[in-house]
Design goal:
heterodimer, A: about 210 residues, mainly alpha, Ribosomal Protein L9, domain 1, 3-stranded antiparallel beta sheet, about 10% strand, B: about 950 residues, 15 helices, about 25% helix, elongated, GINS_A (chain A), nucleus (chain A)
Chain lengths: ~210, ~950
């Protein structure tokens, strides 16, 4: 990937992105009785056998490792839904399909830890991998279509994907900006002023993270 | 006679020029027919309607040629015997392999099912005929007596006799009950030697009175069932010995095939042949199509064909006049039609599951009534069947209980069958729940003739780990709690009695499992609790055992059991009171017993939605008895109104119409259930079902208030409060510590008040002021009453605030009254007390006093007392209440404030009095007057 040319510029390592993705809520079915857990992020539980409850992914993984719960695979992680998404992603000129912001991380952790809880695990896994590949390819194509603009808008790009292209996109935009400057025929003062809008234009991508 | 040629189609390849014994069979509905050949490993199941177009289902389980086939009466099972010494059982028509039901040391030659399909007779080159119980594969009996390979077997239609024929030509007739030989006919049939392609065969007539055996003179000889004497012989155009015989379904015709390669059709009444068909090869097996005038044949080269309309249309069709009442032969599939099958399953179920007997046909009802009355019917069909059937009936009555059958059958709707709460119905080849509750579950699955029982606790950390168990009994009922699980199976005939088995999870001694056998009765429902196990049987007996297996009590219940459940010391039993009403309403009653104290805690009728059935009973987490019916209504039994059912949940009120709820448990506010997608009523075992929590929602009328959820909450909290207070009282009576419960009750009061306040607000919004006033009276805490006044004041409803103030005042008075009467012993109050005691009377007279009081501000005795009392009561609370009351700036509320204040003037006191007067007049017009006085 383009961003890998200079890995030091990349903001987060994949592990770090995964760490952040672990805050996503997943549904588990506990098989033990436990009082609610009170965390900074909120209270989770109480845990009653066979009654599903929502917990952060990291807690779910920790419980699963101890054999205290089973996962309920999220709705989107089904063969039907993923097949649909994959088909839609493969359509030429299509937009990115809505998937959880950290779908790669969630899927990865579930595949690692909750193998027995996902029906058609191998099918699901290969579908997720296909979707990821298709989306990365699309992302690269989109980067190729950069014009001399100061902002690029892409909806539904996931955490891992954004993380991959962020350094490249930033530098590319910087480069565009630099090359545009003589044509724009403006002073340094304007450069600074146009820098600000560009930073501001980065903002709209933020809300994605709240997905 | 016309000579038609029949085209044969190849089903099985027979190599070389050798002749192979091939078999052909129809199922009872003529939907499929089965062929096999002794030179082919496969069994073909052909589609009976279009055998040529659709390819046959091929069953390849044998290692050598298949020599014998048999279908059970209802065509649900297919048995095959082979040269490889095995007898295999398949499901039919799917052809799914079930089990290797038995093995011989030499090839099998013949198989036969008895009428009910419970017995399979198998015989061959081995010595002895094996009678195999098809349910568990056990060998019931081995009949020895033949000196050569047995090639022919046939059960008498009523199932009492088995006729067998060996290759030497000897016919033996066995009485199955005793295993005694009733008749021996030596050398009556041709000696076929050791040829495997020719077998001697014999057949009972469909009415069971005649046994047809190939004779020595190329004829068919008929023998009498009772005497064993030769009745007559059919002799005709057969040039060589007869090798196969088959009766038409109605017994009026018989088809025979001879070694001379021809098939003859005989008319029994005229005792002469009516048609014949020549074939290229010898026909070794024939079968009448059960519902039409057609005969299917198969020759020794494995080619089959169907001889259509063989009985001339001028004669009675072979399907007309099938003996209707007698139990039918079951191994001869040709003799069935559906009507008979129904009749059979009904009358011959002494060893089959008696579930069938709950749906008797109309015919049966009539007949049963006859039998119950012990009237010997004079219909000719009964002359030999009755004795047997009466006997079997008596046996059945020994095992089964219930109301007299004639009554049970007299209405259209049936009494509900017994069931185990938390069980799902058995399904072939699938795991089913024997028991599922909040604690854990017991599942069973059939596996190669045995059952495998697994016990799991939902809380895997805390519950004991229980190893899975191979179940040889075939348990269908189970119950589980913390200390152990109890299993039981229904009885399957005399050989397999109903067994009760208990497995404790932890015990200080090894080998503490125990089993009990029930002779002549059948366990219908089981339950267990702390230290006891209960089993309710078909004789309406409630057996109570200790955990160690000691038989502690035996109680006769007053009706057939529906279901039962246990929780700690409590056992709840539901029984039928009477037969189902013509309006399809079940009539049941319940009783809750305390096993430890040997007391009956509750009893009463079970409330059900009309037309529904009970589907679940259980105890809530707090121990209240609850039921769930098939219409989706959950009811909890409360002591309100002297013990009544409250419908706390109704599935129809729930928004998701597409789901059925399978109840597992409940607590005071919600229901634990498994949601099943609509057509499904029962959950699947895998994937492991998860519980859904549904809040109670009473089936309330849709009120004009538009606050349905609040009204729902209000009634529920009221109910809970009532129950808690009752428990507090109970515990106080038992001199136990009630502080925890009282705190709980207080919390409930608070939440109830919150709910009422919200209701008041919505009442005010919809201008239902009278309702608001009623709600105000229901508030239990003074603080919330003040909040209500504040609320209506803020909503700018001064007259309502006025009304509320008077209510509060009244309430405070009452409280004070109660408090003072309760404190009779308090000496400091002595002075006040004497006057307070006759306080209610002065209140009545206040109306007259008011004008006096207002005109002359001289406190009367009554008002003084009131003032002192009210103020005395409120003095302590005064400080706290100040904050609240400060908010209340309106004039009307101030007045109330002044009442509490001991320093207030008599004038204010009088306004208070006046207010009371107004209240009694229930006039709002008093408002301006009040304002003017302030």
């Amino acid at each position: 990937m383009a961003g890998q040319t200079d890995p030091h510029i990349s903001l987060f390592s994949p592990e770090e992105v995964e760490f952040m993705g672990e805050d996503e809520l997943v549904e588990i079915v506990p098989n033990m009785n436990m009082e609610p857990l009170n965390f900074i992020a909120g209270d989770f539980g109480r845990f009653v056998p066979q009654i599903p409850t929502q917990v952060p992914l990291w807690l779910a993984v920790a419980l699963k490792r101890r054999g205290k719960c089973t996962f309920r695979p999220p709705q989107w992680l089904s063969v039907d839904n993923l097949t649909q998404i994959l088909e839609a992603e493969r359509e030429p000129q299509s937009k990115f399909q809505p998937l959880p912001f950290s779908y790669v991380e969630i899927a990865r952790l579930l595949f690692d830890h909750a193998r027995d809880d996902i029906p058609d695990m191998y099918m699901v896994r290969s579908l997720v991998e296909d979707i990821r590949d298709v989306r990365l390819h699309k992302l690269e194509n989109n980067l190729g279509s950069f014009q001399g603009t100061s902002a690029v808008k892409m909806d539904n790009v996931s955490a891992m994907e954004v993380n991959l292209v962020r350094p490249f996109a930033r530098r590319a935009l910087e480069a565009f900006y630099k090359h545009d400057k003589p044509e724009a025929d403006t002073a340094d003062r304007d450069t600074r002023s146009s820098r600000q809008p560009r930073e501001a234009n980065n903002e709209p991508r933020r809300p994605l993270r709240q997905r | 006679m016309k000579s038609r040629t029949l085209k044969l189609r190849e089903a099985h390849k027979v190599g070389g020029s050798a002749a192979a014994f091939c078999s052909i069979l129809w199922d009872h509905k003529a939907e499929h027919f089965v062929t096999s050949s002794s030179s082919d490993l496969s069994i073909f199941v052909h589609d009976g309607l279009s055998p040529s177009s659709s390819p046959p289902t091929i069953l390849r389980h044998h290692q050598d040629g298949v020599t014998a086939l048999a279908l059970s009466h209802d065509s649900s099972f297919l048995a095959s015997g082979s040269i490889d010494h095995c007898v295999k059982l398949y499901k039919f028509p799917s052809g799914e392999f079930q089990t290797n039901i038995t093995r011989f040391t030499l090839p099998i030659r013949v198989l036969a099912f008895n009428g009910s399909g419970s017995l399979l007779a198998a015989a061959g080159d081995d010595e002895g005929i094996k009678l195999i119980n098809t349910i568990d594969g056990s060998i019931v009996r081995v009949l020895k007596g033949h000196k050569g390979p047995v090639t022919g077997l046939d059960f008498n239609p009523n199932g009492e006799l088995l006729a067998s024929l060996d290759s030497n030509g000897t016919v033996l007739c066995w009485e199955l009950q005793s295993g005694i030989l009733s008749h021996t006919l030596k050398g009556v049939a041709p000696d076929t030697g050791f040829s495997t392609s020719v077998v001697n065969i014999l057949r009972w007539s469909p009415d069971g009175r005649i046994l047809a055996v190939p004779g020595l003179r190329n004829d068919v000889v008929m023998y009498d069932r009772f005497t064993g004497e030769k009745l007559f012989a059919l002799r005709g155009d057969h040039l060589e010995p007869i090798c196969y015989i088959t009766w038409a379904p109605n017994g009026k015709y018989i088809a025979t095939s001879g070694l001379d390669k021809q098939v003859l059709l005989w008319d029994l009444d005229k005792k002469q042949d009516i048609d014949r068909q020549k074939f290229e090869e010898r026909i070794c097996c024939m079968a009448w199509k059960p519902n039409s005038n057609a005969l299917s044949v198969i020759d020794v080269r494995g080619k089959y064909g169907i001889w259509e309309s063989l009985v001339p249309s001028s004669m009675v069709a072979p399907t007309v006049g099938i003996p209707d009442i007698l139990p039918k032969r079951r191994n001869e599939i040709l003799t069935f039609d559906e009507e008979m099958e129904e009749e059979l399953s009904a009358s011959l179920n002494d060893d089959s599951d008696d579930r069938e007997s709950h749906q008797p046909s109309r015919k049966r009802i009539r007949r049963n009534t006859v039998i119950d009355d012990d009237v010997v019917p004079d219909e000719e069909f009964y002359d030999e069947g009755t004795s047997y059937r009466k006997k079997s009936y008596k046996e059945k009555h020994g095992v089964r209980s219930g109301l007299p059958r004639s009554i049970a059958g007299s209405t259209k709707y049936k009494m509900q069958k017994p069931f185990q709460p938390g069980a799902t119905p058995a399904e072939q080849g699938k795991k089913t729940f024997l028991c599922y509750n909040m604690l854990g579950c017991i599942t069973t699955i059939e596996h190669e003739g045995n059952y495998r029982i697994e016990t799991d606790f939902h809380d895997t950390g805390r519950g004991p780990r229980v190893s899975s168990m191979i179940d040889i009994y075939g348990f269908t009922m189970a119950s589980i709690n913390e200390s152990g699980c109890i299993f039981a199976n229904p009885s399957k005939g005399e050989k397999n009695m109903s067994v009760l088995m208990y497995r404790p999870f932890r015990s200080w001694a090894s080998n503490s499992e125990w089993t009990m056998r029930f002779e002549g009765e059948e366990v219908k429902v089981v339950a267990n609790g702390s230290g006891w196990v209960a089993a309710i049987t078909s004789l309406n007996l409630l057996h109570i055992f200790s955990e160690g297996g000691l038989q502690k009590h035996i109680i006769s219940l007053d009706g057939p059991v529906v279901t039962a459940t246990g929780c700690k010391d409590q056992l709840a039993v539901v029984t039928h009171v009477s037969d189902c009403l013509p309006s399809n309403e079940q009539v049941m009653e319940f009783r809750v017993l305390n096993i430890c104290n040997m007391t009956q805690q509750l009893n009463g009728r079970v409330a059900l939605t009309p037309g529904s059935r009970l589907t679940w009973i259980g105890f809530s987490d707090e121990g209240s008895f609850s039921t769930y019916d098939s219409e989706g209504v959950l009811r909890v039994f409360t002591s309100q109104y002297g013990g009544s059912w409250i419908p706390v949940f109704s599935a129809t009120k729930e928004k998701k119409q597409k789901e059925n709820y399978w109840v597992v448990g409940l607590n005071t506010t919600s229901l634990y259930c498994i949601a099943c997608k609509h057509p499904e009523v029962f959950p699947q075992v895998t994937p492991k079902p998860i519980l859904t929590i549904l809040n109670f929602s009473l089936p309330l009328a849709s009120s004009d208030l538009g606050a349905a959820s609040l009204e729902n909450e209000f009634i529920l909290t009221q109910l809970r409060l009532y129950e808690t207070q009752r428990r507090v009282d109970d515990m106080a009576l038992a001199e136990m510590d009630t502080i925890a419960l009282e705190n709980e009750a207080f919390d409930m009061e608070v939440s109830q008040d919150k709910c009422i306040l919200r209701l008041i607000s919505s009442c005010c919004n919809s201008k239902s002021f009278v309702r608001a006033g009623e709600l105000m009276r229901l508030l239990s805490l003074e603080k919330s009453m003040r909040a209500a006044i504040t609320l209506v004041t803020k909503l700018k409803l001064p007259f309502l605030a006025e009304k509320f103030c008077s209510i509060l005042e009244e309430k405070l008075l009452e409280e004070a009254n109660v408090a003072t009467t309760n404190q009779l012993h308090n000496p400091s109050r002595e002075a006040v007390k004497s006057k307070v005691q006759n306080f209610p009377a002065p209140i009545q007279s206040h109306t007259e006093e008011i004008p006096k009081a207002s005109s002359a501000p001289k406190p009367s005795a009554a008002t003084l007392v009131r003032k002192a009392k009210v103020s005395g009561l409120n003095l302590g609370k005064e400080q706290i209440k100040r904050d609240e009351t400060d908010d209340v700036k309106k004039g009307e509320v101030k007045k109330l404030n002044s009442i509490k204040n001991p320093m207030n003037s008599v004038n204010n006191e009088d306004t208070g009095l006046r207010k009371e007067a107004n209240q009694e007049d229930a006039r709002r017009s008093s408002n301006p007057f009040l304002k003017s006085t302030v």
